[in-house]
Amino acid sequence: MCKGLVSALWKLHQAGGGPIRISEIGLTAGAEFNNFQKLRYFSVVVQVGRGQWKLVDLGADFLRGQASLPATVWTKGGRVVERSQNRVFITDVMPGWQWPEDYSREARVA
Fold first, then answer.
1. For residues 40 and 52, is the Cβ–Cβ distance under 8 A?
2. pTM score
3. 75: which strand partners?
4. Residue 18 is part of which domain span?
5. Cα dihedral sign for 11, 16, 22, 26?
6. Residue range 28-50, pLDDT digits in tens
7. Residues 54, 58, 63, 64: what is their CA dihedral angle, to the nearest 10 degrees?
């Protein structure tokens, strides 16, 4: 899991979680757009229908900091062949990450 994939996952969440075409969620040209499909290897999105993607519960839980994912996934021929035993939370990939509601709550308290 890397920052670019987390960013793409977050944009899917912000767009309502799908099903939606990735061309409609504001991914940056290049890395985010080209690598979006790799999120399926981490089991955080599923493709539903032709060209449409949906955020699944594990993806939402990862964004909330409530679930961990394998740090690395190896694939061959479009299939996962191995997942690393090392697991990461969103804050491991994006240090300082806060769910927007948590950030808002802290900003009001201060």
1. no
2. 0.85
3. 80
4. 3-109
5. negative
6. 888 888 899 999 999 999 999 88
7. 130
Residues in the chain: 110
Q: Is 19 left (phi over 0), alpha (psi -120 to 50) or beta?
A: beta
| Strands 73-76 vs 79-83: parallel, antiparallel or unpaired | antiparallel
In the block, tokens 């804050």 appear at 91
Show the tokens assigned to 36: 């979006």
Token pair of 104 as six digits: 């808002």
What is the chain's Cα-based Rg?
14
Amino acid identity of residue 25, one-letter, is I
First to last CA, the chain: 33
Tokens of 57: 């519960």
